[in-house]
Amino acid sequence: MTATDAVAFTAAQAVDALARGDLSAGELFAAYRERAAGEELNAFTWVAEEAPAVQDGPLKGVPVAVKDLFCTRGVPSQSGSRILEGYRPPYTATVVENLERAGTTLLGKTNQDEFAMGSSNENSAFGPVLNPWDRGRVPGGSSGGSAAAVAAGLTPWAIATDTGGSIRQPAALCGIVGMKPTYGAVSRYGMIAFASSLDQAGPLTRDVTDAALLLGHMVSRDPRDSTSIGLPEAIRLPDARRLDGIRLGVPEELSGEAEGIEPGVMEAFEATLRVAQELGASLETMRLPHAEHGLSAYYVLAPAEASSNLARYDGVRYGLRSDGSDLVSLYTQTRHDGFGPEVKRRIMLGTYALSSGYYDAYYGRAQKVRTKIAQDFHEAFERFDFVVTPTAPTVAFGLGTKVHDPLAMYLNDYCTVPMSLAGTPAISIPNGLSEGLPTGFQIAGPAFSENAILDAAHALEGAIGFDGSRAFSRGGMPSTPPERGAPGPLGL
Ligand code: GLN
Questions:
Q1: How, if at all, do strands 247-251 and 177-180 pair?
Q2: In degrees to the nearest 10, what's the CA dihedral of 333, 334, 340, 341?
Q3: How far apart are CA 91 and CA 73, in angstroms?
Q4: Once rounded to an integer, what is the mean pLDDT over residues 216-245?
Q5: CA of residue 162 to ligand 1 center, whole Å
Q6: Which one from 119, 166, 187, 228 is the annotated catalytic residue?
Q7: What domains does the chain contain, in order, with CATH numbers?
Q8: 368 is catalytic
Q9: Nearest to 137, CA basis, from 329, 475, 337, 402
């Protein structure tokens, strides 16, 4: 076997191949580095020159791509923004540190919407990312670079963040797996903040096993992030093949009844519901009565938190500094030059929503809606194991088609935002194609149900039989993994 063949491996298969000695960490890194450095999707903002010294650990020698907004010591970390031009943090995010301790190697930083605000990756100071399935279309956002890099086989896997859907929606649009864990499962220390009560890191991977493997090494309780609690039980590698006895709730508000969900996306979703039934699950339509207000509440709360978080960028301490005749003009000119239009829009919206006289009418009311939505989920999980929906209402759309219409762009998050507001974990798995493009199937469960969600996702993934390597093969990639030898430590 050559290292070039090994890029067709899932990360879990690579772990086993490395452990067996079928291939070396250096060879694997070099094969991915060559692909990442030569890519044409604009998925990477920075690619490592050489593999740093690898720590001994269960993922020893497996490269990982990291969304630009994770601070990585000495390595550019700009969160897709011009205002952080040239910023190389003096410290590393806990999640990245955890992965380094597990033995992974930083392959590169991935492109994203500026400060993770967007659903198409068109709001990046580094320019848009192209979808590997169709280069005229967006990969989704805000973690478009991470998702495109995984789908195109430029990295075995990637980590990203999800505030209102930024892991799940690009996973759906690129035909890969993406998971947002329970709020608090993962430390936010060293993540460049967008909306702190919603931001959560998670994995983007080729399959569900890899999602479990990567997430398991990300989770920790971190004294440097007081909202981090870790998980009560360790993440296991999923092995379920059936869904016997599993009760699935299909919320009317987030599926057939909802406006704007494309018929092809609904068909793919319904096909997977039938697969779930064949595997033994029971289905019932149900209601999440406040979910349809999720988007309105989110687009008050997230900008409000962002306006506070982004007040620190003033041209004095980090990144870009524009000339100004006095201190105030230095601030205003730096912010004028450094922030893109979507970020400016959110800062203004958020500042307005928090201003005295409007605080109760906007921010206070949005908080109440958030509580109602959390209660809806709480009640749903008394009757159902999981709530399932299409991940995104549409397949990948054309570059430039929604970027000047913020409302159309925000509607992409319709099915993912409610879980973010409720803080519950949710995964998106590839769900077959509509118009030749990937769609996603979302499974949400109660807080801390990561293992159960991963098991259900694994059972469905096996039955759906989606060939995620298709985007790869279009990019000239090997489409079938080479023969595997004796099982390695993960038994793969
Ligand atoms: N698309 C949503 C937004 O623009 C979600 C972004 C995210 O999850 N980071 O806010």
A1: unpaired
A2: -30
A3: 5
A4: 97
A5: 7
A6: 166
A7: 3-293+366-471 (3.90.1300.10), 294-365 (no CATH)
A8: no
A9: 402
